[in-house]
Write a structure and sequence with these properties.
Helices cover 73% and strands 0% of the residues of chain A. Chain A has eight helices and no strands. By secondary structure, chain B is mainly alpha-helical. Chain B is rod-shaped and about 60 Å long. The termini of chain B are far apart. Classes of the chains: A mainly alpha, B mainly alpha.
Amino acid sequence: MSLRPVEAVSSLAGAPSSAGSSLHRFANPGRFLRLSETVLPWLVVPAILLTATGLGWGLFFAPADWQQGDAVRIMYVHVPSAWLASSAYFALAVCSLLSLVWRHPLADLAAVEIGPVGAGFTALCLASGSLWGKPMWGAWWVWDARLTSVLVLFFLYLGHIVLVRAFDDPVRGYRAGSILALVGVINLPIIKFSVDWWNTLHQPASITLLGAPTMAPSMLWPLLVSALGFSFAFAAIVVARLRAAVMERRIRGLLLARAGSR
Amino acid sequence: MTHLPFIVASYALAVLVLGWFGIGAWLRTAAAKRRLAAIDPRRERTAR
């Protein structure tokens, strides 16, 4: 079933600045719906294939660690969800910036839709970390800098989810949520460097942008495939949720117009 | 396999979280499409 273009750009859209005008070309909801309908299958299929391959590879074929035994297999869930937890928050902050500075009409909706998904990945990161910590450290939880900063990230997500829905006027909610998201960005470098700045029980990064990974390729490859699958899954979920949100906004607009014409 | 319950629990949680959000998004999109198709005046005009 194909949808007609949704013409009404949100009333949230202010006059775009010249810097933001190119961004606004992609802000038309009808154009977004058409584009996302084409893009979505290209996200969903790789998401399913790569996630299944990465997790299956990690669970059944990757070697056990000489020290941790098979518990290291939790890494193929924990590390991708941790990367996604931080990346999703960064995406949330970028959308918030687009919303505050350029009044991008889809940025508010995107931020609202990213929030719960990011919180879900952060919860998965915390839970899988806890399941990894118990057999390795002998404790479900320690107030370690890395764990605590990720818990703060989870609370930031929850705060954003609550704040954007806390006002009768949605625009005020979006603005308040955007400010919270931008302030919370300070937590991302704290998460990243917490294992270097403080003595933590959590191990330091095994994969860095500049250095060679301190992990055997037989473990690295399934980890990268799993991380790629999680990333595609995140993108697919957010795009699908955003499509639904755009249509729901259109439905509300039509119902209001009908009620006003009576 | 050592620590099997911990491993199974973490993989089950991953499938649960991804499945929850994936199926949730799909159902929400399908419902919005149906509802929009039912009330969109441009669709009604073209149907006549």
